[in-house]
Amino acid sequence: NETVRWIGERVGWGEHxxxxxxxxxxxxxxTALALALAHSFPEYVQDGLLAVAAQPVFYASGEAHHSLDxxxxxxxxxxxxxxxxxxxDQIQLDPERLAEQIEDDRDAGLRPFCIVATAxxxxxxxxxxxxxxxxxxxxxxxxxxxxGAYGAAAIFSDKxxxxxxxxxxxxxxxxxPHKWLAMPFAAGVILTxxxxxxxxxxxxxxxxxxxxxxxxxxxxxxxxxxxxxxxNALKLYLTLRVHGREAYxxxxxxxxxxxxxxxxxxxDSRYFTLSAPxxxxxFNLRLKTPDRLGExxxxxxxSEIVHDVTRDGQRWxxxxxVNGQSVIRFMIISYLTTxxxxxxxxxxxxxxxxxxxxxxxxxxx
Length: 365
Known about the structure:
The chain has 365 residues and is α/β, with parallel strands linked by helices.
């Protein structure tokens, strides 16, 4: 309870909030959508979708986490209820396109109930405009959930808190301490500024469970899908007690500084260009190849380079697609990573690209 309180206060909610630890971001996002459904359709908790007059739908960017699709299926509203909105040039959920889709869905007789803002997409680390999405949520009477599994950890940094400006406007927030807060697996957190919705959505009464009469104690099985559960809060509780928030201020500041160092080095790269805006310490690189090179061939070259750079087991990077384009992806997240590690990776990438596409070196010589 104390750890949840610490996190909620950093979100900026004052005293009126609740939450619980989860197994990770997947369960936390599932919980948030369950809360949003129960808030918009109170009859859903007892009677299911048969009590809901029209098909519920919710909104997220095309780059939002796949757990939203899983959750929609598990909640019974179906994966087609996830309305994925095309991102803008900043890889953010586009508010104008979102408003148009909400209007279209309402005109079609559907029931919008939630907007999901992402604070740190998996592919590129993009952070949606939470303030703008909050305004839309208020306009249309929708629940606003911030999936901040990665990026919401910025609330622990006074210097970088503005990365998630407006997070206090959310109805619920997901944070994964096992990401940017450097905790061991597994540790997820779901927080909500509507604490009463946790019990309204998940509480059950059983004669074999002891009754808690002390308001300072919590029956966590009434606040989430879990019954038997690990004490996932303990590791973060001890870390904050021993090292304090200042340790996270330092960690986040150091990694943002490393990201700036890498970004500066990439400006001089002969082979790679940043293909997406870099907000958090995640990088998307593309080879500087002629336009005539097709996307499939470029993806093959990216895959070849990634295999070459990772086969010695000294580093781990990957390929993915951002907004439909093939990219090489890597991120800085370990507190042990230094500028020397980053420089070694960039050098390995340059050398591998030189072997994979030697004609580029000749063209730029």
